[in-house]
Amino acid sequence: MKSISHLAVAAILSTVAISAPVLAQKAPAAAPAAPAPKLSKPVASILSKVQTAQGAGDHAGALVMLNEALALPKATQEDKLWIYRLMLNTAQATKDNALLKTAVEGSLATGQVSPADEVRFRTALRGLALQSKDYRGAATQAQRLVALAPTDAKAQFELAQVYQLAGQPREAYGAVAKAIEVGKASGTVPEDYYKTASKLALDNNMNAEFATSSAGWLGAYPTAENWRTVLALFLDGAKFDDQGSLDVFRLMHDAGALASEKDYYEYAETANRRGLPGEAKAIIDEGLAKGKLSTAKPYTKELQAVVNPKVARDKASLGSLEADAKKAANGRDALITGDAYLSHGNYAKAAELYRLAIQKGSIDAATANTRLGIALGKAGNKAEAATALNSVKGGAREQLAQYWLMWFNRAA
After folding, report:
1. Phi, psi dihedrals of residue 298, rounded to the nearest 5°
2. Global model pTM greater than 0.90
3. Tens digit of pLDDT for each residue in 23-78?
4. CA separation for the pair 62, 154 (Å, rounded)
5. Residues with Cβ within 8 Å of residue 177, at least 6 apart in sequence
6. Which residues make Cβ contacts (< 8 Å) with residue 99, sequence separation at least 6?
7. What is the pLDDT of residue 219?
8. What pLDDT was estimated at residue 188?
9. To which H or E segment does residue 399 belong?
10. What are φ and ψ of residue 215, in 5° steps?
11. Rounded to an integer, what distance in angstroms lies between the CA atom of residue 207 and that of residue 223?
12. Is residue 353 within 8 Å of residue 322, measured between CB atoms?
């Protein structure tokens, strides 16, 4: 949140400043004024002189008289409200933030302020506290603003910003989450709310919160750019091995979120390291066609030279690999063969082999179920894909499975 200058605070308060004499005897019949204040005679006499002094630019003299009025023993709360309001005029004219704070706090203490003016006053106090880096004071005012307008998502979001400045990330995340909840109930939620929540969670190792906020972000704003941002952040924080990274790259590809040379090259290289030349070649070819990769780069040309000769042999071996997998005592060969089928785009066969791998066991079930869900989803069987993906529990794999499920549901 940017610091709030005196001028910004003054603008917040401009609608409650007194611009016409409060002691005017009459208002024109055609334009009736608000009811005149009921002031005690001693205070009314002083305030009339104060307004004359303010009109002449004598704010020092006006302030002396205002303090005299405050010192009167029988001044009522309504008297004090108008004393402080005229003090507010002098504070604004002289750009005196300390006096501005006194005038605003004094007005609130009278208990005579309207609900609308209380919002303006507390907004000003929050701004003054932020300006002086009094984050505890700013948080107090932000909390009161939320209490005054519990259905105002913006007030909740501004409370979160104060908590951020105060170095309270969990409280900040909670306030943004509430802002999102309130926003959903009343209409659309600004994208910045989701971005802020996701960044707070990511920067402060709040993994469960990042999963929730990023899913909400993608659900509300499912652009290719946002998919890339979320998945890149997720990949960086998940610390996957090649197997997990490969499944993230696959989702980035399907979501149209591969955007750079690095994206395409790392995907192709990872597929090659996992023994999936067909998939690696497809990504290299796509990267070249889109101008993201170039054979003028030695590393791209070398990877292409390694991958291309393997593709036909790999595809020709699928039948024998499948036969061996069915005879095997455990599911390891079936999982490898399922990966090979998936890499060549044969999703029905891949799903069959993944189911066999899960049935035989001795494999990582989370990986197998993730890929079973991917194969089923790509084949158009969204219901069974959801069952497989929802069965993935624990760690970053569970969140990855949920991202895949979101993608399939979005694309449905």
Report:
1. -55, -40
2. no
3. 322 222 333 334 567 899 999 999 999 999 999 999 999 999 999 999 999 999 99
4. 38
5. 197, 209, 212, 213
6. 63, 87, 90, 91
7. 93
8. 87
9. helix 395-411
10. -65, -40
11. 22
12. yes
SS3 labels along 250-287: HHHHHCCCCCCHHHHHHHHHHHHHCCCHHHHHHHHHHH
Amino acid letter, 98: A
pLDDT in tens, 1-25: 433 333 334 444 443 333 222 332 2
**Residue tagged 């972000």 (tokens):** 217
Q: Give the pLDDT confidence of 327-368 residue by residue, as tens digits.
A: 999 999 999 999 999 999 999 999 999 999 999 999 999 999
CA atoms of 248 and 235, how far apart (whole Å): 7
Distance CA 273, CA 271 (A): 5
Mean pLDDT of the chain: 90
* Of the candidates 345, 378, 338, 343, the residue with the CA atom closest to the CA atom of residue 360: 338
| 350 burial via Cβ count (<10 Å: 0-12, 13-18, 19+) | buried
Q: What is each CA distance from 74 to 42, 82, 152, 199, 341, in whole angstroms?
A: 9, 15, 40, 55, 90
Amino acid in the structure at residue 8: A
Cβ neighbours of residue 166 closer than 8 Å, sequence gap 6 or more: 135, 136, 138, 139
Cα dihedral across residues 90, 95, 99, 105: positive or negative: positive
How far is 135 from 229, CA to CA, in rounded Å?
Answer: 31
Angle of the 242-254 helix axis to the 224-238 helix axis, nearest 10: 170
Q: What percent of the chain has pLDDT over 70?
A: 91
Backbone Cα Rg of the chain: 33
Q: So what's the pLDDT on residue 35?
A: 59
Tell me the three-class secondary structure of 318-374, residue by residue.
Answer: HHHHHHHHHHCCCCHHHHHHHHHHHHCCCHHHHHHHHHHHHHHCCCCHHHHHHHHHH
The angle subtended at Cα 356 by Cα 352 and Cα 362, nearest 5°, is: 145
| Structural domains of the chain sorted by starting position, each given as residue range(s) with its CATH number in brackets | 1-24+36-124 (no CATH), 133-221 (1.25.40.10), 243-411 (1.25.40.10)
334, 325 Cβ separation under 8 angstroms: yes
Cα(408)–Cα(388) distance, rounded to whole angstroms? Answer: 13
Cβ-based neighbour number of residue 161 at 10 Å: 18
The confidence score (pLDDT) of residue 237 equals 87
Residues 104-141: tens digit of each pLDDT:
999 999 999 999 999 999 999 999 999 999 999 999 99
- More confident of the two residues 4 and 170: 170
